[in-house]
Amino acid sequence: MRSQTRRRHTMAPSKHALLGPSSSAMWLGCPPSARLTEHMPHETSVYAEEGTKAHYLCEQLVRRSVPAWMGLPAAPTQDLLDNPEYPTEMKNTAELYADFIHTLWVGFPHTPTVCVEQHVKMTRWVPECFGTCDCLLIGDGLLHVVDFKYGAGVPVSPVENTQMMLYALGAWQLFQSTDDIQTVRMTIVQPRIQSEPETWETSAESLLDWAENTLRPTAKLAWEGKGELNPGEKQCRWCRAKAQCRAWRDKYGPLADFMTQTPEARDPRLLTDEEVGMWLIAAQGIAEYVKCLEEYAQKQLQQGHAVPGWKLVEGRSTRRFTDQDAAFKAIEADGISEAMLYERSPISLTAAERLLGRKRFAEVCGNWVEKPKGKPTLAPESDNRPAYDAAEGFTPANE
């Protein structure tokens, strides 16, 4: 069994790379957007801060677990799991992540190298490009890149995921002199949305071909601020310039005219299925576009700037108790029993799982749990999920 090589861990710089992996969907899909947003502030959110905390917990659990996997004295982790700063759900997802890394580790024929929060550079193909991989495992000709996502909003697929591909290139560049990497696997662990991690595999040869023939020339355009603005779902989702982007406005301007025509003028009864499909594809981003404009206008008004035709007003609010306990005591004193003031309802399946932990929950009550198939929902043909069969429908499956 090959002994594990302990490579020095380098912390990632705190600054943002102009052409960074996390924004690669934006600048690869729309090269001028990188320079267009270069001096716009990077805003944080409670979700981003929550994700940072979850990543740190995952990092510590894996770091402290690796010695035990190798038969060495284990580093304690109870201080992390007992820390009230981390919510129960965060601890559970971090443990799932660490367990998954261990599963990958034991799956290698020989002991692999494990790198946690590894700083990598992709400057061979992209100017000043760097990033931090959550976890890398290298051995037996295989490079496995794992990315943890704590978000519970948008599912992220690893299939041709440019952020993951850039991380893989950085890892290949870092270890090419010591490891003969033939196969590259990329896994996204997103336990709050997906019950199982998702993995995509490609050859190192294919990855390097993409880097030379697609990544390098597009990155050159983006670095120089050249190319054409190209509005689209992936590249515009996190673009900080989209509210003011004329190309985005031009894309959806004709749709606004179509959607405001009277029924008599456009006579929807005469639309064919092909026309319906065409308009749905064209209108995919219009709701997001309007929402983005509203958020931008509100921010401008809150900062004291005028947006002609718009103003800030007081929004709807609901009544609330200033002191619920005191209010309830007064109600009881007026003759209403305490039992009338409270409702008893069962906790959700997810809440019950948090109490027991995922593994114990499955052992205790897995026989009474099923995950029904979701209701049919509209999606573009590019969606990775299989199409719904109107004849067969969906069949619930036991977990």
How would you describe this structure in keywords?
single chain; 399 residues; alpha+beta; two-stranded antiparallel ribbon; disordered C terminus
Summarize the helices and strands and which ones pair or pack:
Layout (H helix, E strand, L loop, with lengths): L23 H6 L3 H4 L9 H24 L8 H4 L6 H19 L6 E9 L8 E10 L2 E7 L13 H14 L7 E7 L8 E6 H21 L8 H5 L8 H15 L2 H4 L6 H10 L3 H17 L21 H10 L15 H8 L1 H8 L4 E2 L25 E2 L1
Parallel strand pairs: 3-4
Antiparallel strand pairs: 1-2, 2-3, 4-5, 6-7
Helix pairs in contact: 3-5, 6-7, 14-15
Structure commentary:
By secondary structure, the chain is α+β, with helices and mostly antiparallel strands. The protein has helices at residues 24-29, 33-36, 46-69, 78-81, 88-106, 162-175, 204-224, 233-237, 246-260, 263-266, 273-282, 286-302, 324-333, 349-356, 358-365, and strands spanning 113-121, 130-139, 142-148, 183-189, 198-203, 370-371, 397-398. Among the domains are: 21-224, Lambda Exonuclease, Chain A (Alpha-Beta Complex), CATH 3.90.320; 241-302, no CATH class. α3 crosses α5. The radius of gyration is 26 Å and the shape is globular. The model is unreliable at 1-14, 262-269 and 395-399 (pLDDT under 50).
Specify Rg, calculated over alpha carbons.
26 Å
Percent range for helical residues?
40-55%
> Architecture of one domain, according to CATH?
Alpha-Beta Complex
- H and E string: HHHHHEEEHEEHHHHHHHHHEE
Strand order within the widest sheet?
1-2-3-4-5
Average the pLDDT over all residues and give the rounded result: 84
Globular, elongated, flat, extended or rod-shaped: what is the shape?
Answer: globular
Strand proportion, as a percent range, falls in 5-15%
Helix-strand category? alpha+beta
Q: What is the CATH class name of one domain?
A: Alpha Beta
Biggest β-sheet description: 5 strands, mixed
Low-confidence parts, pLDDT < 50 over ≥5 residues? 1-14, 262-269, 395-399
Counting DSSP H or I runs of 4 or more residues, the number of helices is 15
Beta strands, count: 7
Gap between N and C termini? 36 Å
- CATH third-level topology of one domain: Lambda Exonuclease, Chain A
